[in-house]
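Q: Here's a chain of 214 amino acids. Please give me its 3D structure as tokens.
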Amino acid sequence: NQRLSEWHSNFGSTAIAIIIAFMARNEDSSPAELTEYLLFHYAFLYEDPDVIDKTRTFLSPFMLQLVATGHLQATIGHVNVLALNTDALIVNGIDGVVGICAAALERALHLIRDNVINVEDVLAAPPAQRKLMVKTPKAFNKVTGKETWTAHAFLENNWGSATHLFSKSACLKGRTIMRDITSMSWKLLKKPKSGLEDYLSDDDSEELDECALV
């Protein structure tokens, strides 16, 4: 259960890191402009965000990088659990993984668009501090009178519906595109450092306290 929770927790912070790294390389447009552009018609999902080609959905660089770093890298050398059929899940359960990745990226874009995460502040901070700034931001809960991270967290209650719909869409795309996603994502793992190291922490324990992660 702990390893599964760790696997789940990868997606939220890794998606934020991927989007921030992209924005760091695109100084001509503001984060607000970029997020609006990428969210419009779900452009962030397509191989070419300028061309909404339904036959190339889920093949964007964002998606491939998140599948690679959030899923494939995290499951290399996994222990097969017979009750969960994990060996088959790694190969055949890509529909669900694609759904999780798509929802995680949409969440990251919303957090940046709504200025819950301020990209300029993250980029201006020292690398060690950046890793803390891409974790789930806390928000004040008026009912409890305390700060909690659940309002913005990548939880079933917040993003379960979107994850399900994205996964259903991925399933309808067919095996060929799912194989393409897996193959292209594996190739990314063989490349040099992705540039995400400045934003990702090895410890995502703050997100492991809840059980309903998507």
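Q: Can you summarize the key feature?
A: Residues 78-87, 203-214 have pLDDT under 50 and may be disordered.
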